Amino acid sequence: MILYYFIASILIIAGALLSRNKTLTALLAGGFIAGQAVFTAYMLDNRNLTELGYFTFDSTAIILMILLSVLSIATFYHGLVYLKDEQTENFNIYHAGFIALIASITGVYLANNIMVTWIFLEATTLSVAALIYHHRTIRTLEATWKYVFICSTGIALAYVGILLLGISIKGVPGADLSYQSLTHTVVHTDPVYLKLAFIFLLIGFSAKMEVFPLYTIGIDANYVAPAPVSAFISTALVNAGFCAIFRVFKIFTNSAVASWTNGVLIITGLISLLIVAGYMQRVKNFKRLFAYSTVENMGLVLLAIGMGGIGYYAAFLHIVLHSLTKSSLFYQMGQAHKILQTYKIFKTGSYLKLYPVGALVLLLGLIVITAIPPSGMFVSEVLIFKSMFAGNNWWIFIVTALLLCFVIYGMSTKVLLMIFTPLEKEIQHPVKVNPFQSMSQYILLGVVIWFCFSQPAFLVELLTDAAKIVK
Predict the structure, then answer these.
(1) What residue ranges do the domains of the chain occupy?
(2) pTM of this structure
């Protein structure tokens, strides 16, 4: 099935690029999105099945694939709205890049071998570059080259980490670079090699997860990309980075450096939060504001993993809820830009008056993303704090709570300014947006709120299994 999936992806990408008709391209892309959902359903019916030797349908992959299918459908719809007046060539390139990105992310989620993960992560770099450069301006060209260069540098560093892992298991009978094999073989290897390998892998994959130290490239990419693409980069692609880092982390949980890797993740998470707490106060663009929010939330995820115990479950739950929330905010910003004609924070205002339906989405999204009840993210953050209490890490809790206060203040003041503050200069002939375009945001945010009160049993089972660390 996975072979058919990748073959179909390549053929549809080629068809989109060769098409001379926007309707045909849209049908091809829509067919691919539908096929993605069918493939995800197939995975649910064949849990833990391995295909082609390198791809396994485990619980981690299934959770992320369900999210990917949901986000693909929503992003495809908002992309069609965003590209309504685009030329055929740009329309085709956009959808070809979008399909390639989805297929590449799928490869990352399903890979059971660290080299296969590495290959597909590099493929995501090339795929998303076409989407970042969509507007064909000097600014998008600069951001695209920066993204390709820094991500490629990160991938190169990750490759050094893989080489160090390979050296550390050299001579072990039957050892290979599959995650299962590495988990058993690193127990008997030199801790120095393991520490160096983990550092290189974490730095390399941080560009995709958007955490310290290579988080900056994700901020720039979100800033210049079309709003639907920004939504996808900050969720599905970031989840690919999380998947890579979590699978690498699991390799080391039985090794001599297990507690050390926990400490590294905690420090990385705290630094990510510290950076966001500072930048959130002075950021001047809404897309950058929400991009920094992604760095904050991924920092919390790293803290959860570093804490261990219930933190593993909290990390996966937070990933799910963040994906639904952050995509909603970026979709809404695409509509806000049509009306306000800018992303600049201090040139916006009166959004409640100009587009009440969209203003309510932003207000609801603000409550949800800052984990204020009835946000489901309140539950995941409480579980993260609980994991800190379980390990008597009170100083980490205090620092995290203080940094989150700064983040919440910075985000709230800016979003509320946009919604309620009167515009200094009235917009001449404001664009009208169909309220139906905000329906997807209400649905996604509604699911996150629902999760505050109840979580489906099948999802709880998947999250529990994905968070399981074999000792």
Answers:
(1) 1-255, 257-471
(2) 0.96
